[in-house]
Specification:
With 127 residues, this protein is an all-alpha fold. It has two domains: 48 residues, no CATH class; 69 residues. Helices cover 77% and strands 0% of the residues. The longest helix is centred in the C-terminal third of the chain and has 18 residues. It is globular, with a radius of gyration of 15 Å.
């Protein structure tokens, strides 16, 4: 695949992840992280890791959420990937089970912080 092809696939991936039109991805990312980082991120997202047939969207969601929670990432970044996880079939019970499993491996402070976000999103969705 060409570099331009990876870039275009990256734009499409981020548009899907962040629920925005493809035409808005470059400006939105450049505003947040600058043009150089944006280009690197687009090429990475357009690579095989995001489209390899051995991983389902659900598999990717579990892996990404696990990595984010392990690093203590919360807020909008975690919420974005939790939303995607729901789209990929992970419901409240599965996300709660994942956070409970993670607590034993990465510690209760980070897992419980993430569980609070899962719970808040669930409450918003059901009201």
């Amino acid at each position: 695949m060409t570099a331009e092809g990876r870039r275009e696939r990256g734009i499409a991936a981020y548009a899907r992840i962040f629920d925005m039109p493809e035409r808005e991805v470059l400006a939105a990312f450049a505003e947040r992280v600058g043009p150089v980082f944006t280009e690197e991120a687009l090429h990475a997202a357009g690579g095989a890791a995001w489209s390899h047939p051995a991983l389902t969207g659900r598999d990717r969601s579990v892996a990404i959420i696990t990595a984010l929670v392990a690093q203590g990432v919360s807020g909008d970044r975690l919420r974005t990937h939790l939303r995607l996880a729901r789209e990929h079939g992970l419901g409240d019970d599965a996300l709660a089970a994942l956070m409970t499993l993670l607590a034993g491996y990465i510690g209760y402070p980070r897992a419980s912080q993430a569980m609070e976000i899962v719970h808040a999103l669930s409450e918003q969705e059901h009201t």
